[in-house]
C-alpha cells in the first residue's frame, strides 16, 4: 500500500507502538461508502430545517405521531441514496487486513438499518461486522454511548479502539469515548482536519493499515 503525501503530512500523532489497536468502529455514509451530501440537503428541505439544526435532534423533539412521519421522510431519502452507494477506495483491503489480524469491526451510524444491511450484503458479504449501531440506539452521535456500548460488547477499553468517520459528529463521539479518531478526507470536510478531536487524516481506507502497523498517539 502506498501512503499519499497528504496522509504523511496529516499523520501528526504517529509515534511507533504507543496505541495497541484492538477494535475499529466505522461510520457508514461518507466512510464505508462515498459521500452523498445531496441526501442531507434533501432531508433539510423536506423537513423545512435550516442547516444549523441537527436533523435527528429535531425529529426526536416532535410528538410521537409527527416523529414517525418525519422518520419516514428521512428513510425514503436514505433508501434512494442506498441504491446509489459506491464503496470507498481501499474498503476490502482494510477489511481483509483486519480479519487477518483478528481485529473486530463494528458500525456506528446515524442511518437506519436498511441501508446498513444493503452495504454489508453488497460490498462486504464475506466479512463479519458487529455490533451494528444505528439511530435506533439512543443517544446517537456525537454522544459516545454507541462507541462505549461496542467497547463493552467486545470486552475491551475504548482507548484501544479507532473511530473512523467523515464528520465532526464522528470525531466528537470517538474523542468523548476516549478512542483514537481517524477522519476520511473529502471535498466537504476540510474544516474538520485540524480540530482537536481529529487525530489522523487519511484519503483512503487502506491507509489506516499504516496507522495500525506503526502505532500512533492521540492528541489528548
TrEMBL record:
Matching InterPro entries: HAD-like_sf (IPR036412), HAD-SF_hydro_IA (IPR006439), HAD_sf (IPR023214)
SUPFAM superfamilies (UniProt xref): HAD-like
An example molecular function term from Gene Ontology annotations: pyridoxal phosphatase activity
Highest taxon above the source species: Eukaryota
Recorded coiled-coil stretches: none
Pfam family, one: Hydrolase
PANTHER family: HALOACID DEHALOGENASE-LIKE HYDROLASE, SUPERFAMILY HYDROLASE, PUTATIVE (AFU_ORTHOLOGUE AFUA_4G13290)-RELATED
Protein name (record): HAD-like protein
Amino acid at each position: 500500500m502506498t501512503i499519499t503525501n497528504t496522509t504523511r503530512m496529516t499523520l501528526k500523532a504517529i509515534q511507533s507502538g504507543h496505541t495497541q489497536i484492538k477494535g475499529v468502529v466505522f461510520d457508514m455514509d461518507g466512510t464505508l461508502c462515498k459521500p452523498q451530501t445531496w441526501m442531507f440537503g434533501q432531508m433539510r428541505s423536506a423537513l423545512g430545517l435550516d442547516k444549523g439544526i441537527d436533523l435527528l435532534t429535531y425529529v426526536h423533539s416532535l410528538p410521537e405521531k409527527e416523529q414517525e412521519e418525519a422518520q419516514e421522510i428521512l428513510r425514503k431519502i436514505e433508501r434512494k441514496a442506498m441504491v446509489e452507494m459506491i464503496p470507498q477506495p481501499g474498503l476490502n483491503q482494510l477489511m481483509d487486513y483486519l480479519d487477518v489480524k483478528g481485529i473486530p469491526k463494528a458500525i456506528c451510524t446515524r442511518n437506519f438499518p436498511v441501508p446498513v444491511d444493503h452495504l454489508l450484503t453488497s460490498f462486504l458479504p464475506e466479512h463479519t461486522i458487529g455490533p451494528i449501531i444505528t439511530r435506533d440506539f439512543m443517544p446517537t452521535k456525537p454522544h459516545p454511548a454507541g462507541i462505549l456500548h461496542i467497547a463493552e460488547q467486545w470486552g475491551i477499553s475504548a482507548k484501544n479502539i479507532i473511530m473512523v468517520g467523515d464528520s465532526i459528529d464522528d470525531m466528537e463521539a470517538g474523542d468523548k469515548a476516549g478512542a483514537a479518531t481517524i477522519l476520511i478526507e473529502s471535498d466537504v470536510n476540510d474544516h474538520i482536519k485540524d480540530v482537536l478531536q481529529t487525530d489522523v487524516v487519511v484519503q483512503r481506507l487502506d491507509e489506516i493499515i499504516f496507522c495500525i502497523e506503526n502505532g500512533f498517539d492521540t492528541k489528548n
